[in-house]
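>> Question from a student workshop board

For tomorrow's exercise we were told to take the sequence and the ligand below, predict the bound structure, and bring the output to class. My setup keeps failing. Could a helper post the expected result so I can at least see what it should look like? The ligand is NAP.
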Amino acid sequence: AAEAFRNSGWAVPSPKRRGEVLRDIAQRIRAQAEELATLEARNVGKPIDDARWEINAGARCFDYYAHLASQPSGETIPVANGGLDYTLRVPVGVVAAIVPWNFPFLMAAWKVGPALAAGCSVVLKPASLTPLTALALGKIAHEAGIPAGVFSVIAGRGDQIGDHLVSHAQVRKIAFTGETVTGARILRLAADDIKRVSLELGGKSPNVIFADADIEAAAAAAPSAVFGNTGQDCCARSRIFVERPAYAKFLEAFVEATKKQVIGDPLNAKTQIGPLVSAKQRQRTEQYVEYAKEEGGRIVYGGTRPTEKGYYLTPAIVDGLANSSRVCREEIFGPLACVIPFDGEQEAIALANDT
Ligand code: NAP
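>> Workshop helper replied:
Here is what the output should look like for this input. Compare the format with yours to find the bug.
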């Protein structure tokens, strides 16, 4: 990648050419969107409709950065004594992009698109569980004219090749999405030679519902907000705060709406909730169902295996837990929602922000 950065010609100031190639990547993604969506559904176990959305969003990302390739510009700064002071925007060099398994294609596009638009070389490391669509993206990029070495995909274990990539002297920038603990480790390793680092880490997002809202509409929307992608989403609205007068009505309607979610084969167009990505991820979610019981929570619905075939888990709805409980504080990354009452706007804001 470093060699290609110096010699392939990709880094020279030719935003027009870079834009054309990125637009070509977007077109090639669209031309094979159905195959890529099927591959992504098999890769992660996500419903085919969600996979279609993800692939198309990936194509839009390359279009967006194709346009942006020609946008960055420097500044001229007035200085004293006839001096000339100006800035130029130049590519930093080799970028290591490390992505997780929940949205493998889209996460890759979000990192690779801007780095290539800027003229950098990129080494992409997909998650071990989901290398397939990242490898397909590598092939598409080369067919579109990205020079050899400017964009490489290395599939392999993060604990084996991750440190090597992150500590490598020729890597100038790291773009990482994944767990907070992994992110903290990367930041420490990157500090030694002051690499540029972008981290997108975990979350424990709130869904706040006031008593004067349309409760039926809020309850109908809540399942996909937390159980979409089988809850394996850094912005899953996994803590649902409901103003006390509407609490019972919301909970009942939310359970009913969740029961209607179609769990099944990811390749079936009617499926809304697929299996978890792995046995480990299902076990992790089941462990949190146990923690919820230990902490005094009530399992209002779900949390059980609907079938023995595949890593499925019926979405779990828990109430009776405080926002300070382990289940409400830690990111689960599985289909588990906590419903918590609140009194008034001040308390809602305080609870939502207390993560
Ligand atoms: P993860 O374990 O941190 O893994 C993410 C990536 O880092 C994988 O490619 C992994 O490789 C690699 N990795 C593991 N150890 C590494 C090391 N020592 N050095 C360098 N790379 C290493 O996270 P995950 O379980 O795949 O993903 C779930 C997490 O991602 C959740 O916490 C979620 O919130 C977060 N996430 C955040 C966003 C966001 O936008 N903020 C979006 C999606 C996901 P292996 O697969 O080989 O272990």
